[in-house]
Amino acid sequence: EPETTCEVDPLKESGPVRTAEPGLAADYSYDKQNARLLHSSEQGEILDREYYSTGSLKSEKRTSAGKTYDMFYSYSRLGLLLSYTDVLGQEQVNRYDSFGRLYETSLGEVYSTFDYDTVFGRLAKITTTDKTDGSRERTVAISLEYDDLGREVKRTFDLDGVEQQMVQVYDDVDNMVQRTLRQGTETLRDETYLYDTSGRLGQYQCTGTQRPVDPYGRTLRAQAFTFDGANNLTVVTTRFNDGSDDNSNVESNNARYFYEGDDPVQLSRVTNSNDKYYPSEIKLEYDLDGNLKTDEAGRTLKYDPLGRLIEVGTPSAGIHYQYDPQDQLTGETRGDDRDLRFYSDAGLANQLGSHVQSTFMRGDDYLLAEQQSDHTLLLATDGSDSVLGEVGGDGINRRRYTAYGHASGEAPPLGKLGFNGELAEADSGWQMLGNGYRAYSPVLMRFNSPDSWSPFGKGGVNGYAYVEGDPVNRVDPSGHFGIFTPFKLLYRALKQTPTLTTKSP
After folding, report:
1. 396-411 average pLDDT score
2. What are phi and psi of 133, to 5 degrees?
3. What is the pLDDT of residue 502?
4. Which domains, and CATH codes, for the chain?
5. What's the rounded Cα separation, in Å, for the pair 140 and 390?
6. Contact 236/225 with Cβ under 8 angstroms?
7. CA–CA dist 363, 488 (Å, integer)
8. What is the model's pTM?
9. Where does the record place the region Disordered (predicted)?
10. In sequence order, what DSSP letters do the residues of 326-346 get, joined into one string?
11. Collapsing DSSP states into helix, strand and coil, what is residue 203?
């Protein structure tokens, strides 16, 4: 079996060279004075970078399949991002107030403004307006209210004239215990959460007219989660009915999770008590590196020697993934169709497909809008950036999610992003977190591959567990470890405060 090797030039003239097998090598070149990455290449994917004298990124040029794509950045003297030009030549422009806080960002004919409260300087309102159609502007406004401890307790949505309110309640350790979404007198969702002594989600209940639907088409009323000491799910009890907002026709299912291999955190099979709606047994298979190679739907998964997912076999077609030298997922091929993905510091910036080109607009890490080839979607999101509503020319498309992120709605999603603002893969529903580092499955409620930072690093003792069993209060954008949502909000606030720094040229 081929080995993975790494060669390092101590003078940094030529950085590490990884060789996994013939034809799979990545080369890196660095600035001789400051060791900043200038050039990297792998299997025809080439990335070149230029920097300002301050060390901030000035431009990136990516070459893929012989075609080049350019991205450009400009900054203020205090290091605030003033503009970003994407691979389609679209420029997003940022404007800041005297405190260094973002107060407006614009991308083409889409504008977002940010208002802050006068006492604490906290974000109070985001208003996003689409002026593409000169005869009919569309607007999404999100107003935020906080309690005395600085926790967000109310989020009011104005979805182009349709008002909704989301009220959130917390316990003494800042875990969310209730979240209620209403539109007028109608309760869309009233969700309650209980946690075990280790802080993991133990019970979930939901009432309302827009309850989430699980991966097998059941409209949820409640779920109970049981774990072992290694954060493995052992039993999930689901109560569901036909979707009516009462206690009629309630049925249940007990899913039992088994870990029977040499690795005590590697899920081997799942059994279900209700085989009317659920498969009676799901068997999973892994390769020697612990990567899932046969999933719950019978799909076959293949990986390269670096552990990156490169192929998914489905009944309809084979899906192939490509990566750049930074291990970012940059391309997906299915049959004759290919899409490319491009990233900025804020995350996924563009997805260019054979039929649809998507641009994702953010401001201070808040997800705002998605521009597609022929229309724009304004996005209503919660505190974790999960997309709750897509506002377009045909009205509002509402989304909802199970606790672990399986998406459902009144109609198929119009946009690409969903749970926690992440891209959902079209066929599987997986999220390729960490810009493609590894796949998270909302169906299995765990990762398909073990974390390279586990079991002794920040990834935790369980290399497959998602956010240590707390998907309500934690997010995992890196694919390595969960971030407590209030810390994510604090990170956003810190990014708004410019500081003068001195960097070597």
Report:
1. 96
2. -90, 105
3. 37
4. 109-495 (2.180.10.10)
5. 10
6. yes
7. 14
8. 0.92
9. 1-24
10. T--EEEEEETTEEEEEEEETT
11. strand
